[in-house]
Amino acid sequence: MTDADLLARHKAVLPSWLALYYDEPIEIVHAQDRRVIDSTGRSYLDFFAGILTNSMGYDVSAISDAVRKQLDTGILHTSTLYLIRSQVELAERIAKLSGIPDAKVFFTNSGTEANDTALMLATQYRRSNQVLAMRNSYHGRSFATVGVTGNRGWSASSLSPVKVSYVHGGYRYRSPFRALSDTEYIDACVADLVDVLETGTSGDVACMIAEPIQGVGGFSSPPDGLFKAMKEVLDQYGILFISDEVQTGWGRTGEHYWGIQAHDVVPDAMTFAKGLGNGLAIGGLVARGDLVDCLAANSISTFGGNPVAMAGAAAVLDHIADHDLQANALARGTELLDGLRATGNPLLGDVRGKGLMIGVELVKPGGMEPNTAAAARMMEETKARGLLIGKGGLHGNVLRIAPPMTLTAAEAAEGLGIVVDALAAIS
After folding, report:
1. What angle do CA 398, 403, 407 make, to 5 degrees?
2. Stretch 265-292: mean pLDDT, rounded?
3. pTM here?
């Protein structure tokens, strides 16, 4: 069966809105380290890691061994109705790593579910359905998380269980405040936050949810310190702050273990997923104990905290620490950022990011008009040269580069060379 046959079957039985990359989509059938192989036997260097999920790469023996050890017990699942030792142990580690006082952890199966849980807890704790979110944000595909997503391309419905007000700050390149200095930019965004609170809400807002670096929004981020300044305002109103760390957590940004730490502030809650499982389905929330415990009704998580995911996630945390992958993310990311910025290609409107979380915003030469067509061509050109990258941004014109955190210097140079060559080809 060819990929074309599989694509026809895919279209027949799966939703039309289930996005696929490439004019001729590929099936990945084997992988090792940072390389994947498709059904035709072609190899690719992976610079998108399953949307930042395969954070350690592929076929990592320490992680696979931990999962096999759990499988050998015969127990894949028991549910949270029973004690799960590995769940308790992993929660203790994450609570300590979070820096949140008296933290408690709740495990889910995805980032969407984690963010949905955070919104439910915050609205219950504050007895309010009003929520603040960032423009150009993305928080998942559930009813509530779509409701707080500030990107029309990923927000399919105006219906929502929460009332949302959007504030400036997360996406600087096209912001009306873009020409300001860092300090002035922060001041302007904080002033906007205050104005929104005073004019667009009744004051008793439940929470603000924000990504330290906007993922689907094109790896965009504000100046360091913005969220500290915003939280000072939120605290005056008693509003909770939720940091969506689904893509920024576990050291990927290089500078800090959590993306929000760049802003020198401790949130009331953080959500996580993706890279913690290195491909295993896992997500969760770590938050103040009183916030987590605010529900009066019973609840469980059927698959959240399952022994297989817990074993794999614990091995991932060990692998990050044992191999100092946070430092590696910073070093390799700096090489990629420096190399991209040095090209001087007129298609590059903005090259941004931290660590191995890099966004390349493509524009039409001579201005800032989004170049969506160039981004689509770059996807095909890099694939043809043996490199997989991602794409996003409000206008679909941002290349998203996020290799596994185990990326080597040689692989960084190889991938950079392919991106530069592809840019030259479409120029």
Report:
1. 145
2. 98
3. 0.97
